[in-house]
Design brief:
Strand content: 5-15%
CATH topology: Rossmann fold
CATH class: Alpha Beta
Shape: globular
CATH architecture: 3-Layer(aba) Sandwich
Number of strands: 7
Radius of gyration: 17 Å
CATH superfamily: NAD(P)-binding Rossmann-like Domain
Order of helices and strands: EHEHEHEHEHHEHHHE
Distance between the termini: 34 Å
Number of domains: 1
């Protein structure tokens, strides 16, 4: 197993891409800590699935958009686990609208969850990684963080910010053998994309050279690779998994 004896924290790990990452990392031997905000039942279900595979898993509740709540939860988690060797900053929200009428409150909400949340969570776990002189952090960006997208100014800005955060962290932490990378999914079938209309989905499909939507498991495969020793010489990179959509 690629990740035997590793402990992985997956934020937003109870559904969609986060759930797929939790399961894929567990299949490679990692103990999984599934973060959730409100749906405890979904988080426990993921834990049950992992245990059914013979793995170890637990759920932890905190909102990455809430600094105090995140700090409190992670202090307790780190005290219990001592060292988290893999962090997947997957938690994210979207709030779309034309920039001209976009409420600043919604802008702040997206930024606090998608970008600041990744910073706060990373800041909490890197102390242990630095002490152990190893670790892997993976930020979940998006292809629209590279290409931009009309009506998604806040989401695109936050996802682009994650790429900049990835590069800066990678440079700061490389001397301690801590690797930091990002994954930029394209159009992936999740709860978030289910909200799109049939017309919107058809329009997006036309932009994908592979002519199909992606699956959460295909993003999880990239995350497992980056978390593992197979990617020991890779840091500061953004792996695009989008079926060619961003070409």
């Amino acid at each position: 197993m690629l990740l035997a004896n590793e402990i992985a924290l997956v934020t937003g790990g109870s559904r969609g891409i986060g759930k797929a990452c939790s399961l894929a990392l567990a299949k490679e031997g990692a103990e999984i800590i599934v973060n959730y905000v409100s749906n405890e039942a979904a988080a426990q279900q993921v834990c049950d699935e992992i245990r059914a595979l013979g793995g170890k898993a637990s759920a932890i509740k905190f909102d990455v958009g809430n600094v105090a709540e995140t700090h409190e939860a992670l202090q307790g988690l780190i005290k219990e686990k001592k060292f988290i060797s893999i962090l997947v900053n997957n938690a994210g929200i979207t709030c779309d609208g034309l920039m001209m009428r976009f409420p600043t409150e919604d802008w702040d909400r997206v930024m606090n969850t998608n970008l600041r949340g990744a910073f706060i969570t990373s800041q909490a776990v890197i102390r242990g990684m630095m002490k152990e002189r190893r670790g892997s952090i993976i930020h979940m960006s998006s292809i629209v963080g590279i290409t931009g997208n009309a009506g998604q100014s806040a989401y695109c800005a936050a996802k682009a910010g994650l790429i900049g955060l990835t590069k800066s962290m990678a440079k700061e932490l490389a001397s301690r053998n801590i690797r930091v990378n990002a994954v930029a999914p394209g159009y992936i079938e999740t709860d978030m994309t289910d909200a799109l209309t049939a017309e919107q989905k058809e329009g997006i499909l036309k932009e994908i050279p592979l002519n199909r939507v992606g699956k959460p498991e295909e993003i999880a495969s990239a995350v497992v690779f980056l978390a593992s020793s197979k990617a020991n010489y890779i840091t500061g990179q953004t792996v695009i998994v989008d079926g060619g959509m961003g070409m």
